[in-house]
Amino acid sequence: LGQKVATPVFTMVDDGTLPNFRGTTNFDDEGTPMRRNVLIDQGVLVQYMSDVLSAKQLGMERTGNGRRESFRYIPIPRMTNTFIDKGKDEPADILASTPSGLYVQSLSGGSVNPTTGVFNFTCREAYLIEGGKKTAPVRGATLIGNCLDVISNIDAVGNNLDFGPGICGKGQAAEVTAGQPTVRIRGINVGGSRAR
Questions:
Q1: Beta-bridge partners for 133
Q2: Per-residue pLDDT tens over the stretch 34-72
Q3: Model-level pTM?
Q4: Which of 8, 53, 11, 7 is nearest to 36 (CA)?
Q5: How far apart are CA 54 and CA 110, in angstroms?
Q6: What end-to-end distance do the CA atoms of the chain give, in Å?
Q7: Are 94 and 80 a contacting pair, CB within 8 Å?
Q8: What are the residue boundaries of the structural domains of the chain, listed by start?
């Protein structure tokens, strides 16, 4: 805690109190009230998600993240409604100031190794960026990287914010919501081909 893990424009939140979101309840599966937890604040790691056991082991307070799929499983620390908080940049300005790149409109699935932070996500809809404009569609693009490397390369965060439903795995499924604004990442590995 207290270490810089991302650029100063990056803030990440887990909030189990957002009305009508999939990860929202009054209490987690251990009876701890749900709450808003700022995990990374302006690039600095300030909070972990915890359940009763991890909070005790780490000497920290419980955060309302002790969740499980059903009574057949033990609660473990996991996300509720997790999102990158909105920033100050206009999404149109982010695009216009990007000379070349890949504009990812939506993702269709992927995975993250929670031990290493290595991820891969398939782009459902993506376009080339040329001269600050979206141009040709890109089919089959996959984003591959390491979470810490990516959040250390975000240089613009939009003032918009969009949420979508999801499932947190970890060997037992839990309904969650994830969200983010428009972000620009200075460098990320991309695989795919231009649509013809």
A1: 130
A2: 999 999 999 999 999 999 999 999 999 999 999 999 999
A3: 0.90
A4: 11
A5: 27
A6: 48
A7: no
A8: 12-186
